[in-house]
């Protein structure tokens, strides 16, 4: 279907139909004029590139109208497509008619000038999509979401919608946000000692999910290969450039996959996504490479072309211990690796992505498949340059007794988990899966360095303004 009433700027810039009339609509990025002619750079978000409008000042446009065409204003323009005499663009529009939709006061429009800091743009998150940088990031974000669905659809996975509200907090992946319709103010006033959650909306204590995995496993043990792709919520107070309180996660879950096939899938999946970005987001990546990160394109290309290192946690810890580096957090067998350790392995030791496996069971979730050594589980974390952990996953423990024993050791209440354990009671099967943090992927693909800059409206501690 054609877009009603206009042609997209991305399309008109590729058009060879000079001499024909077109209608375009968009927001003014810049306007410069002399006595005879005005040049407007127009952008409609379909591409990083602007369309040049050439306005003959003596061409019957009122002075009042021309004055109102300022940075940030929105307009419709009709005119003739001609080859551009300027060097910046292949074609331009010789404007015949202009309709101004919305003005933007030059004194108060916050994006009047170019070159704002990313910190400042976070404070005007409602307007930052109109900048070159955020236009590029948001288009790449879309392309990656689309590519994720395409990859799984092409490979025989079903998209499973897992609930955002959950009564189980057994995943243990992070602190949870409570969901309730109980009136907290009234409970405080009545000095209630024990809150009766049977009176709450769902008749029990509920929270926002930290992961769709447990429900994903139910799907995999019926449809064989599923994936989830939705928002997840973690109430940790971690104010870092890599953590959000609300982030999107992709979680494939596969029956009949063991840890090796799980690693193969994770590696193939990430390489596909990076290659997709290189093939489909050429202009936006070139812009980000020029503006923010001169090594971006090279780094993306190198990930597509190199095999990931596969290494036992134990060997990883030995390398870190031998490194002689003084880390902020001490490293020893049994320690939960920090970003600084992960990045040392990836960026300094191996100089390529690393998949670490067979972690100590104490630092991993209850559902991971136990190894025969009694000490480690079949976990796998994929570690990336500049990011650290981008994927966390594992083969799952499919044996009911072993799983139950681990649950008891960890004192996890099973009353809300009976449905999960039923998968091990009825037709259990070896299975595996992982979770890719969508924004962590986008940090890597865009080269941005703060996770707040790869999601339109970031949710972090003390920040839910926009
Ligand atoms: O390692 P995590 O906690 O794994 C799980 O939640 C498993 N249930 C996944 C599975 O096996 N199906 O989280 C998975 C990924 C991390 O590797 C990271 O990329 C991302 O989710 N992530 C976050 N991204 C942004 N902000 C946060 N607070 C994140 N916490 C995890
Ligand atoms: Mg993890």
Describe how the helices and strands are arranged.
Blueprint: H1 9-12, E1 21-33, E2 37-43, E3 51-56, H2 63-68, E4 74-83, E5 91-102, H3 118-123, H4 132-154, E6 158-159, E7 165-166, E8 178-179, H5 184-189, E9 206-208, H6 213-223, E10 225-233, E11 246-255, H7 259-280, H8 282-291, H9 296-305, E12 309-312, H10 313-322, H11 339-350, E13 354-360, E14 376-384, E15 388-395, H12 400-409, H13 418-425, E16 431-437, H14 438-446
Parallel strand pairs: 3-5, 6-10, 12-13
Antiparallel strand pairs: 1-2, 1-4, 2-3, 4-5, 7-9, 8-9, 10-11, 11-16, 13-14, 14-15, 15-16
Helix pairs in contact: 4-7, 4-8, 4-14, 7-9
Bound molecules: 4-amino-1,4-dioxobutan-2-aminium adenosine-5'-monophosphate (4AD) and magnesium ion.
How would you describe this protein?
This protein is α+β, with helices and mostly antiparallel strands and 466 residues long. It folds into 2 domains: 9-109, OB fold (Dihydrolipoamide Acetyltransferase, E2P) (Beta Barrel), CATH 2.40.50.140; 128-175 and 210-453, Bira Bifunctional Protein, Domain 2 (BirA Bifunctional Protein, domain 2), CATH 3.30.930.10. The chain has helices at 9-12, 63-68, 118-123, 132-154, 184-189, 213-223, 259-280, 282-291, 296-305, 313-322, 339-350, 400-409, 418-425, 438-446; strands spanning 21-33, 37-43, 51-56, 74-83, 91-102, 158-159, 165-166, 178-179, 206-208, 225-233, 246-255, 309-312, 354-360, 376-384, 388-395, 431-437. The strands form 3 sheets. It has an 8-stranded mixed beta sheet with strand order 6-10-11-16-15-14-13-12, with helices on both faces. The longest helix has 23 residues, at 132-154. The chain binds 4-amino-1,4-dioxobutan-2-aminium adenosine-5'-monophosphate and magnesium ion (MG).
């Amino acid at each position: 279907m054609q877009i009603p009433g206009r042609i997209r700027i991305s399309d008109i810039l590729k058009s060879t139909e000079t001499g024909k009339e077109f209608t375009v609509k968009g927001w003014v990025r810049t306007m410069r004029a002399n006595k005879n002619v005005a040049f407007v750079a127009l952008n409609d978000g379909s591409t990083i590139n602007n369309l040049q409008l050439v306005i003959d000042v003596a061409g019957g446009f009122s002075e009042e109208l021309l004055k109102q065409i300022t940075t940030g204003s929105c307009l419709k323009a009709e005119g003739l497509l001609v080859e551009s005499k300027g060097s910046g663009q292949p074609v331009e529009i010789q404007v015949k008619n202009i309709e101004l939709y919305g003005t933007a006061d030059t004194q108060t429009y916050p994006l009047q000038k170019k070159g704002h800091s990313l910190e400042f743009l976070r404070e005007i998150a409602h307007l930052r999509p109109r900048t070159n940088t955020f236009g590029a990031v948001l288009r790449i974000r879309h392309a990656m979401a689309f590519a994720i669905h395409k990859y799984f659809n092409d490979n025989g996975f079903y998209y499973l919608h897992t609930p955002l509200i959950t009564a189980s907090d057994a995943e243990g992946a992070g602190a949870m946000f409570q969901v309730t319709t109980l009136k907290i103010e009234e409970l405080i006033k009545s000095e209630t000692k024990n809150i009766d959650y049977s009176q709450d909306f769902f008749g029990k204590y509920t929270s926002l999910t930290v992961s769709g995995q447990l429900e994903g496993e139910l799907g995999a043990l019926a449809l064989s290969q599923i994936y989830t792709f939705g928002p997840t919520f973690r109430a940790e107070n971690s104010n870092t450039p890599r953590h959000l309180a609300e982030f999107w996660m992709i979680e494939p879950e596969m029956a009949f996959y063991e840890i090796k096939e799980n690693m193969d899938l994770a590696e193939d999946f990430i390489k596909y996504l990076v290659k997709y970005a290189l093939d489909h987001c050429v202009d936006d990546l070139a812009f980000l490479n020029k503006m923010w990160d001169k090594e971006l394109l090279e780094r993306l290309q190198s990930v597509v072309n190199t095999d990931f290192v596969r290494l036992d946690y134990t060997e990883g810890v030995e390398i870190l211990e031998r490194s002689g580096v003084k880390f902020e957090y001490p490293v020893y067998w049994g320690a939960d690796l920090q970003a600084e350790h992960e990045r040392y392995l990836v960026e300094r030791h191996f100089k390529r992505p690393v998949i670490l496996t067979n972690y100590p069971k104490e630092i991993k979730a209850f559902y991971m498949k136990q190894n025969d050594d009694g000490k480690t589980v079949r976990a796998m974390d994929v570690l990336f340059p500049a990011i650290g952990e981008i994927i966390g996953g594992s083969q799952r423990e499919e044996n009911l007794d072993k799983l139950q024993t681990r649950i008891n050791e960890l004192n996890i209440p099973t009353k809300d988990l009976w449905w999960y354990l039923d998968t091990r009671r009825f037709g259990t099967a070896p299975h595996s899966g992982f979770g890719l943090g969508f924004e962590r992927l986008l940090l890597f693909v865009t080269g941005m360095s703060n996770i707040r800059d790869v999601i339109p409206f970031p949710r972090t501690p003390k920040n839910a303004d926009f």
